[in-house]
Specification:
It is a single chain. Helix content is about 60%, strand content about 5%. With about 250 residues, the chain is mainly α. It has a two-stranded parallel ribbon with strand order 1-2. α6 packs across α10. The longest helix has about 50 residues. It is globular. It starts with a helix and ends with a helix.
Length: about 250
């Protein structure tokens, strides 16, 4: 869906954009929004709070944005809402082959989080908190959570239908192509085919690449620290040795 919106000239905010804005504290800001809504910690996010993250985007999709239906529609009252439709079972199969695989990397990501506290640490915390909402506290990657996830999918669909005025809501399946979408958004139909991207396996590979790249960043950082220690230690040794010799001569 994001690729289709991009083709239409609407810059879309989703997980990858969230990660691209790591230096702008988007991971931390969304975690604050989650804690305020679901844990009662801090102030509920409103228009200006979302503007800090979304000011230069035209649309939002994916988690964690989909968990803030009321807040985002209140913050942007003229925004139109597209509810993509599919069967709960097809959605579950998709996440089983993609993000739930990533969530199962608990030990390795926890270890990397310890060393990479600027990026993987907050990303891993936010990702798990997001999916704990969807799975209602069950570890989302475990089979015991699958019935709950199916229920959450259905309840989210009903929730969007109830929360968004009908004149602002389009229920859309990608198989429908450009027609209904462009009509709803009042945008001319582009001269290219409707995109079908985001295969589950590609998402897993993207996260694997990110995981190993962050380890390389950590190792380079540790190598620099070890290099400084190796430079300082001989100097300390030479200084201590010189002081000892001075004491002997005295």
């Amino acid at each position: 869906m994001c690729a289709a919106l991009d083709i239409l000239g609407l810059r879309s905010y989703h997980w990858n954009e969230l990660l691209a804005n790591k230096n702008n504290d988007h991971l931390q800001l969304w975690m604050k929004a989650m804690q305020a809504k679901y844990d009662g910690v801090g102030q509920t996010f409103q228009g200006e709070d979302f503007d800090r993250m979304l000011w230069n985007y035209d649309s939002v999709s994916d988690e964690p944005c989909c968990l803030f239906v009321e807040e985002l529609t209140a913050a942007y009252p003229d925004a139109k809402v597209i509810l993509t439709t599919r069967t709960p079972e097809s959605w579950l199969r998709s996440v089983q082959e993609a993000i739930l695989v990533v969530l199962s990397w608990r030990t390795s990501c926890a270890l990397l989080s310890y060393f990479d506290r600027d990026f993987i640490g907050p990303w891993w915390v936010l990702l798990n908190r997001n999916w704990s909402v969807l799975s209602r506290g069950e570890p989302a990657y475990k089979a015991s959570a699958y019935p709950v996830l199916l229920q959450t999918f259905d309840s989210h669909t009903s929730h969007v239908r109830a929360a968004v005025p009908k004149e602002r809501l389009l229920e859309f399946h990608p198989s429908q192509g450009w027609g209904p979408l462009c009509s709803f958004l009042d945008i001319p139909v582009p001269a290219v085919g409707f995109p079908h991207l985001n295969e589950p396996q590609s998402l897993v590979q993207i996260r694997k690449d990110m995981y190993w790249e962050r380890w390389r960043v950590v190792i380079r950082g540790q190598a620099g620290t070890l290099g400084m220690i190796s430079l300082i230690a001989p100097n300390l040794y030479d200084s201590n040795q010189a002081n000892s010799q001075d004491e002997v001569r005295e």
